[in-house]
Amino acid sequence: xxxxxxxxxPKEERAGxxxxxEAALAARFEARIDAGEWIEAKDWMPEHYRKTLVxxxxxxxxxxxxxxxxxxxxxxxxxxxxxxxxxxxxxxxEGGHGLYLYAAAETLGTSRDQMLAALHGGKAKYSSIFNYPxxxxxxxxxxxxxVDGAAxxxxxxxxxxxxxxxxxxxxxxxxxxxxxxxxxxxxxxVMMKEGTDAQRAMVQDAVDRWWWPSLMMFGPPDADSQNSxxxxxxxxxxxxxxxxxxKFVDACAxxxxxxxxxxxxxxxxxxxxxxxxxxxxxxxxxxxxxxGGDGPCNTERLAARVQxxxxxxxxxxxxxxxxxxxxxxxxxx
Length: 333
Ligand code: BYC
Description:
This protein is mainly alpha-helical. It is 66% helix and 2% strand. The longest helix is centred in the middle third of the chain and has 31 residues, at 164-194.
C-alpha cells in the first residue's frame, strides 16, 4: 500500500488557474488524462479535479466506517464461533478500508480532521445503504452478498481511477471485498440449503428489504447524476451509475437462483434482445429522502460516529503527548 504519501502539491499550484502558464498546465493535464497516465499527489491538477476526488474519496471513507455499524450490531449475536470470527474480521477490514481511503484523500491536501468534521457536522455524505437497520441474523449474510457485491461492482473500475493513490487503495480493498461477498453468500447458502423453514423465511425477508436499497447504492440514474460527465471525462469514474447497476442486476439474478431466493421485483426478467435483465422502476424519492437525512437510521448512525470520536479524545491526546515527549528526547540527545 502506498497511499500515504503526504507530499502535497505546492500551494500556488493548488490555488487554481491564474495565468497563461496555468492554462498550459491545464492543457497538459488533459493530455495526460487522454493518454491514460496516472496522476500522482505531487502532479499539477485542476482545482475541480482535486475537489471532486476529495468529495468522492472522503464519502467513500465515511461509508466504510459508518458501514461497520449495521454489521457490528450482530457481533455479540452471531450464531456460532465460526460466524463470529468471520464477522469480526470483516468489520475490522471495513475500518481498515476507511483508513486507506482517508490516507488517500489526505494526499490531496485535506486533513482527516477536516473530513471528519464535515461528517460529524452532517455536511458530508456517506452511502445511503447504511441508514437501513439489520433486523435479523440473515441481514448480515445479505449485506455480504448484496451490499458488498454492489460495492465490488462499483469499486473494481475504481482500481483504474486516474488518481493513482485512490486506485492503489482500491486494489487491496477489492480483494478484501471479494472475501466479504463470498462469506455472505456462503452464510445464506447454508441457511437456504441446510436450514429450517424459519431460517429460509428469514433469508427471504432480508432479501426483500435490502434488494432495492442495494440498487440505489450505485447513485441516481445517469440522466440525474450531476457529477458523472466530468468524473468520467477525467477517468475518476470509468463506468456510469446505470451501467454498473445493470451489471449488478444481471449477476444477482443468476446468484438468486443458486440460493433459491426470489428477488422482490415482478418485472425482473431476461430480455433476449438486449442480452440483459429488465427490471422494475426504483423509488428515487426514497433514495433522496435517505440521502437527505430522513432514512430509518440516519440519526442513530451519525450519533454513533460522533460518540466514537468523543470517546477517542483521550487516545488522540495521549498519542500527541507521547510524540511531544519523543521529539523532546530526540532534541535533547
Ligand atoms: N448514497 O452525481 P452522482 C462498502 C450522491 S462502502 C449517498 O452520481 P458521483 C461497505 C452523490 O454523492 C462503499 N449519496 O455522484 C462498507 C452526489 O452528491 P454530492 C461505498 C449518494 O459521486 C461496509 C449526488 O448523490 N462506495 O463497500 O458521481 C460494509 C449525485 O450523484 C449515493 C463508494 O463510496 C449513495 N448511494 O457518483 C459493507 C464508492 N449515490 O456529493 C460494504 C465510491 C450518489 O454531489 N463512490 N450519491 O453532494 C462512487 O463511486 C460515486 O461517488 C457514486 C456516486 C457512484 C457513489
